[in-house]
Write a structure and sequence with these properties.
The chain is α+β, with helices and mostly antiparallel strands. The chain folds into three domains: 204 residues, no CATH class; 146 residues, Mog1/PsbP, alpha/beta/alpha sandwich (Protein Transport Mog1p, Chain A); 56 residues, Membrane-bound Lytic Murein Transglycosylase D, Chain A (Roll). Helix content is 35%, strand content 21%. The protein has 17 helices and 18 strands. The strands form four sheets. Strands 8, 9, 10, 11, 12, 13, 14 and 15 form an eight-stranded antiparallel sheet that branches. A four-stranded antiparallel sheet has the order 5-6-7-16. A three-stranded mixed sheet has the order 1-3-2, sandwiched between helices. The longest helix is centred in the middle third of the chain and has 19 residues. The chain is globular and about 70 Å long. Keywords: Hydrolase, Metal-binding, Metalloprotease, Protease, Signal, Zinc.
Length: 493
């Protein structure tokens, strides 16, 4: 969550498996001019929503790899019409927008081990665009019942269809781009096209299989870690699980190209590019640590109840559990806190759904003035309790939780969370540092265990080291070998 806030949930299209034949491209195709114009218009909003875009040599390098692969997509003027952006997001993801825009997150790059794996991901997403898969995606109107803040992030409380009218206009801005799923056939085509592109570009086609294996390994570890964590599942893993046979399918297709095991991998060059890249949460957007969320720049912290999970987005933190779901956000305000809460409620419903509100109530939390209200919304799935708990942080800034629970529960499941919000000291804020990739050369005597002990985590150090480096549990390290560590870095000034 950054310094600027809005009620907007973040989702994206991820790479997933399927089975289908790959169409042969006989002649150059052109991108739809209307989709190109729409993608250009949406691009600044996408970048802002997903934490901003990386700039400098790292971004230039990733774009160069994408353009090299896209040149074999059969798209006319591919070098000019495709755009590749690295997003400052802690979610492992990549997605494509009709109109030639491909996005990949820094977190996904951090689990890759060479340039060929990056090329495959770029090729997969380019394949979606080149094959015009967007035309056959599900209609946006079919998903309107789960759009918006309450629909997208809170729908699981009483079922997706319960929030048909609780649709945020801001969330709709991205609905067409982000909430339309590809079919299994289209996903398999994108895999196959990506393999074809990277083989044509001179890369080792087997990078498709190693990249998919790396994703599988990362997902499995994340599932283990979540057993004792309050962080929610990465978007690509939760919405598009990898199939058990996807790696094998990719390996078979790679062998058919005749370039499996040959061609460019460029491991050292890739590792040099991601050396120092931020992983996990960026302190500028706040840090999740167990049950706590801490934002050093905003100087605030809160704790979620036991059993609830968090996901940190660019503009908000979402909280979910069996007792209900919520979102934390905020921004500047003028006037009274009652007016601020009214604006929040209007933003949630877009004026489409009436919420029967109880009285506004005043309180104080850890010395911070607060105002809250609970209301009842009648939906097709039954009654739902909607709560807004807002804090007057200073003369111009307010923060708030929006909660959704089953009718009759009110805000009680989140009472401890409301009372936990507090200010942190400058010293506490300064102690929060980012985690970054540190590429090191294995020295004589180094082992998996000794290097893993340097990982900047309190648990699963060895498992994380093995996963991020794509190693087998019994791997033996060799002097001169380069490996990735995750260590604490320095805050940007």
């Amino acid at each position: 969550m950054r310094k600027t806030f809005a009620l907007l949930a973040a989702t994206a299209v991820a790479i997933v498996p399927a089975t289908a034949q790959v169409p042969q491209q006989q002649r150059a195709t052109y991108l739809n001019p209307r989709e190109v114009a729409e993608a250009q218009k949406q691009h600044p909003e996408v970048v802002a929503e997903f934490g901003g875009a990386l700039t400098g040599p790292r971004a230039t390098y990733a774009e160069g790899v994408g353009r090299r692969v896209a040149a074999y997509s059969g798209t006319a003027n591919a070098g000019q019409v495709y755009r590749f952006t690295v997003l400052n997001s802690a979610v492992e993801n990549a997605f494509a927008v009709p109109g030639g825009y491909v996005y990949i997150t820094r977190q996904l790059m951090s689990i890759m081990n060479d340039e060929a794996e990056l090329a495959f991901v770029m090729g997969h997403e380019t394949g979606h665009i080149a094959a015009n898969h967007a035309q056959a995606r599900r209609s946006a109107t079919a998903n309107n019942s789960i759009l918006g803040v309450l629909g997208s992030i809170l729908g699981a409380v009483v079922g997706n269809n319960a929030f048909g009218n609780l649709i945020s206009q801001s969330a709709q801005q991205f609905s067409k781009m982000r909430l339309l799923s590809f079919t299994r056939d289209q996903e398999y085509q994108a895999d196959a096209l990506g393999i074809r592109y990277i083989a044509s570009a001179g890369y080792d086609a087997n990078a498709s299989a190693t990249m998919l294996a790396q994703l599988t390994r990362s997902a499995a570890l994340e599932a283990r870690i979540q057993g004792g964590s309050n962080r929610s599942t990465p978007e690509w893993a939760s919405t598009h699980p990898l199939s058990e046979n996807r790696v094998a399918q990719a390996g078979q297709l790679a062998r058919q190209t005749g370039r499996a095991g040959t061609g460019i991998r460029n491991r050292d060059g890739f590792l040099a590019q991601i050396d120092g890249i931020t992983v996990d949460d960026d302190p500028e957007q706040g840090i999740i640590d167990g049950r706590s969320f801490t934002h050093p720049d905003l100087r605030l912290q809160f704790m979620v109840p036991t059993g609830f999970l968090m996901q940190n987005g660019t503009r908000a933190v979402t909280i979910q559990g069996s007792g209900g779901q919520a979102q934390f956000s905020g921004g500047r305000y003028t006037g009274s806190m009652e007016n601020y809460i009214a604006e929040v409620l209007r933003g949630l419903t877009g004026g489409r759904t009436q919420i029967a509100l109880g009285p506004m109530q005043q309180t104080s939390v850890n010395g911070i003035p607060a105002t809250y209200v609970v209301g009842r919304a009648n939906t097709s799935g039954g009654g739902v309790d909607v709560g807004v708990f807002a804090y007057r942080w200073d003369a111009n800034t307010a923060y708030h939780f929006v909660t959704l629970t089953r009718a009759g529960q009110g805000v009680q499941p989140f009472a401890s969370m409301f009372s936990s919000l507090r200010r942190i000291t400058p010293g506490q804020a300064a102690a929060i540092r980012p985690r970054v990739i540190d590429v090191v050369t294995v020295q004589r005597g180094d082992t998996v265990q000794s290097l893993a002990s340097r990982m900047a985590y309190r648990n699963f150090q060895q498992e994380r080291f093995i996963a991020i480096n794509g190693l087998a549990p019994n791997s033996q390290l060799l002097p001169g070998q380069k490996v990735k560590l995750v260590v604490y870095g320095t805050r940007r000034s």
